[in-house]
Amino acid sequence: MKKYLFIDRDGTLVYEPEDYQVDALHKIKFLPRVIPALLKLQYHGFTLVMVSNQDGLGTESFPLDTFSPAHEFILNTLESQGINFEQVLICPHKPEDNCACRKPKLGLVQSYLNDKTWDRAHSYFIGDRDTDLQMAQNMGITGLRVGDSSDLDDEDGASLLEDSNITSPDSPFAHIKALNWDEIATKICIELDYDLQQERKQRQIQAEAAEALANREATAAKVTASGVMTGDATQAVDEIAAAAGIEDMGEAAAVVTEGTTATNTIATCHHCSRPELEPKGTKFAPSTHRVAVVERNTRETQISLRVDLDTVGGSSIHTGIGFFNHMLDQIATHAGFSLQVMVLGDLEVDGHHTIEDTAIALGTAIREALGDKRGIGRFGFVLPMDEVMAEVFATPNLDLCELSVQGKPEGATADSADDKTITVALDISGRPHVEFDFHADFTREDINGFDTQMVPHFFESLAVALGLTLHMKVTTGNAHHQVEALFKAFGRALRPAIKVISTELPSSKGTL
Known about the structure:
By secondary structure, the chain is α/β, with parallel strands linked by helices. It has helices at residues 34-43, 64-80, 110-114, 130-139, 181-214, 217-221, 231-244, 249-265, 322-335, 352-370, 454-466, 479-498; strands at 3-7, 46-53, 85-91, 124-127, 142-145, 272-273, 288-289, 291-297, 301-308, 316-318, 338-345, 382-385, 388-396, 446-447, 450-451, 468-474. β12 (382-385) and β13 (388-396) form a beta hairpin.
């Protein structure tokens, strides 16, 4: 189904001047990163429609001959970069005209609303004002507010804080936080991928149900050409259909009779299907693309996170804490996977909930993406950085998921010897090693809004969510280097641990 982005113009694509009229070329200033964001969204299958109120357009107060050159420049610039709009819908009326087409009224988009074939669940209205969010609500789609803290008092535009036309404290939409264009693109793409993953999981369950029934000769023999079933067969269908979440028994019977066909056309795992690669020498490729998407929403944070363990680069990370963004990128870069993160947290309180909940979401996503962990390397190593050295020894292990200060799982006994970590020490070029544990001090308490005491808490939260036995040490030195070395070392330790190096499960227990 077709997915739409209905997009406002002034204040959304370009900054809105203080007089609210983009009627000259020198007034045109595009919002940061709007072009790459729109290109990304088009690539993901979205069709763009511009919807704009232009007060008094065509009247003496706003002549067409001053509007048209600026408007055409905006459209031509976007088109030259590969961004195309299916339609450009403009209301020329003033509020006092009480027309039917001025946002948030629906006159401009009525033809779209009459069309029932497009995907409303995955379509959005994007704008800067409350009227845009109200428009989204009236259309039955999701509204997103564009903005950025750096835009609030831009010298070329109206102050969003002082402009009651944008929002007001008593507005029902005042709680909706503004996102910059990179954040909007990331949020939409993660949400789209999450929904697709949920659909794949449901199809997988139904396919497995169909396969199980198709393989039961006794059941299959009792399915007549007309689809009528005997008592035993019906009971089997009831059991499998319940597991598959199929409420209609006719649908369940249809799945059974299609059996083999359904299994051949639907992926048999929740990961995205990927053709299996031929192993060369001792190298092994995963037979599925290991991807997971996690949505975590609490009263304190709203998180959308996606990991792709078999794709390098292309990360997009937005947590509201710049240094934390940088640290998460270090993990993804050095672990060799792609990471998309969009976090809206209660930073007006502090960064604790944002950092902790992101760690939980990341650990959960990696655990889900690893699947049954067959063939993974499992273990990891040491990283030097300037005057400091960080050590990270990691073991993905679902049974050992509680972390003490020294990294040894509480309650571990001699029976767990098979699950102990293996240390691979690298040459650190003669730099001295000073043992560090989670009680050691960083040389600064804060790095650009990032509380350094959250570093051990981040890794403990991630380890518990991932099911990871984790040992970490860092030497003294520059606090930025201490923290960054730990995040880089974790990524480097994770890289061989998540890499598929065989077809065997790396445990003598037969499970991880």
